Amino acid sequence: MILSTMKTSTLPHFQGKPLIECPETVPQANFLTRDFGKAVLEEVQGRARADHHDAAVLNVLSYHDGVVTGSNAYVLPLIGSIVRQQNLHVATPADLELVIKTNAFSLQGTYEDFALVLRSKGEPNSYLARHLAHQVTARGHNLRAPLMIPYAGLELINDSDAPEGLAFKLREDAAVIEAPILKKPGRFNQADVDYAIGLPRTTGKTGERILYSGELKTGLSRLYLDGYLVVDSSWNNLAGSDGDGRVVVVSRDAISQNAEKTIMAEYKKKREELDARKDRAIRILDGKE
Length: 289
Known about the structure:
289 residues; alpha+beta; 2 domains; four-stranded antiparallel sheet; 5 helices
């Protein structure tokens, strides 16, 4: 097993869209677009050739109409290692739920990979499941509940025994999250989302969104958002990719003073509008208007 050895080239500046409901940090997120997206794509292709034997599962990205398309479980950790040079990371489930909550940009009609789900050491993907299970149990976790492991905490390594010649290594800062809710598929509303981890707290028979797990109860699978904002953990083909795939990158760096002033002014304006609506609703209920 070896980690990437290719030296990362300098990337253009990442231009994200502010998630203005968190004015303290003003996180920014966006797809891989324009010059930044092109540079990341070229870096992925270069690293695939130099470090990972030009593995076919890494050659799944394309550039169309200003955005990089395609996504699978293998390419996300590789992209993550590339964008970290700008203190960026590939989106976690919590990040994507914040994008949805703030409507910073639309995720409708595309799919976004954001984590692996480890249920047991069995099939599907038993070799990689055992490999990951060894790492997570060494950190004190157990497999009683499904474990959600965001790609932001994974490194891609070569492994000649693995099905695609590649495996996943936990970073020191990896989040390994016990997620029993993944055993309870059903419907949920946006208000049910736990934004600390990016999954619903509860599911039921009603709700505007869906948590889906198919028939999977063992092994290793992908966790992703589909084009209808369904949270789906049933995709066991870790290599699969198509043109609807998108990679979301997130920055929590401080932004320029002028940009922060603009964002805070917009945030203040929206809060004032909401407060005015709330006050008027109270007056109407009290019969004062």
